[in-house]
Amino acid sequence: MTDLDFRCTGVRPEPFGASPTLLFGLRIEELDHQPVHALALRCQLRIEPAKRGYDPDEVDMLGDLFGEPSRWNSTLRPLQFAHASLTVPAFTGTTHVDLPVPCTYDTEVASASYFRALARGEIPLLLLFSGTVFTGRGGFRAEPIPWHKEASCLMPVDVWRELIESYFPNTGWLRLRKDCLEALRHYRSERALPSWERVFEELLAAAEAKRAEQGEEATKGVE
């Protein structure tokens, strides 16, 4: 059985991709010194949120994913990030390749919501490998890549932010139900608001004013 070792050597944005894509540098070594004719590689990427600490502002932004901080011992579970695949050309010994991983900025996707909440530091990732290796000295045979093959990676938060900012500068995406979107359209039309930003700013200001009013009433009630 061919014995492959995988290491992640770094992460960087793909500068010329049609959509947001990260390039994960991989070092692949064949430990039994067998020639590899080709490698049909699949990779599942997971976020391991329990392996890093969080600032108070990050904790506030992660409540929708993990609940109250008092429950994080049980809710801080791995999150699915992405699936990717790559055909690795022939090599003997060691080779270095880039694994392209598509990314989304849809805040309804847990991974994007998690990345968006982080202000600094590194994101602990686990890369789980599978696929088929084509090998053989003086012949040709196909072998599965064992499911236990994996590699850890610490991706700087700034790398993800740089990637998203290059495709969506100073903007974000919010997916809404159709009825909710129609209600917002009516709200905007009735008030002749010039932009969607103005719609949300007005709604947030109204909610904040109502909260302040309720706070004043509660204070008067105590007095």
Structure write-up:
It is a single chain. The chain is of the alpha+beta class and 223 residues long. It folds into two domains: 4-167, Immunoglobulins (Immunoglobulin-like, Sandwich), CATH 2.60.40.10; 178-222. Helices cover 33% and strands 34% of the residues. It has seven helices and eight strands, in the order E-E-E-H-H-H-E-E-H-E-E-E-H-H-H. It has helices at residues 56-61, 63-66, 72-75, 110-117, 157-167, 178-191, 196-222, and strands spanning 4-13, 21-30, 36-47, 79-88, 94-102, 122-135, 141-144, 150-156. Strands 3, 4, 6, 7 and 8 form a five-stranded antiparallel β-sheet that branches. It has a three-stranded antiparallel β-sheet with strand order 1-2-5. The longest helix is centred in the last third of the chain and has 27 residues, at 196-222. The termini are far apart.
Write the SSE topology:
Layout: E1 4-13, E2 21-30, E3 36-47, H1 56-61, H2 63-66, H3 72-75, E4 79-88, E5 94-102, H4 110-117, E6 122-135, E7 141-144, E8 150-156, H5 157-167, H6 178-191, H7 196-222
Antiparallel strand pairs: 1-2, 2-5, 3-4, 3-6, 6-7, 6-8
What is the number of E strands? 8
Main beta-sheet strand count, sense and barrel state: 5 strands, antiparallel
Q: Provide mean pLDDT, rounded.
A: 91
Beta percentage is 25-35%
The helicity comes to 25-40%
Order of helices and strands: EEEHHHEEHEEEHHH
CATH fold label of the largest domain: Immunoglobulin-like
Counted by DSSP, the helix tally is 7
Low-confidence segments, given as residue ranges, are none
- Main CATH class of the largest domain: Mainly Beta
**Oligomeric state as shown:** single chain
N/C terminus separation? 79 Å
* Domain count: 2
Radius of gyration, taken over Cα atoms and rounded to an integer in Å: 24 Å
**Overall 3D shape:** elongated
CATH homology superfamily name of the largest domain: Immunoglobulins
- The CATH architecture classification of the largest domain is Sandwich
> Which class of secondary structure composition applies to the elements?
alpha+beta
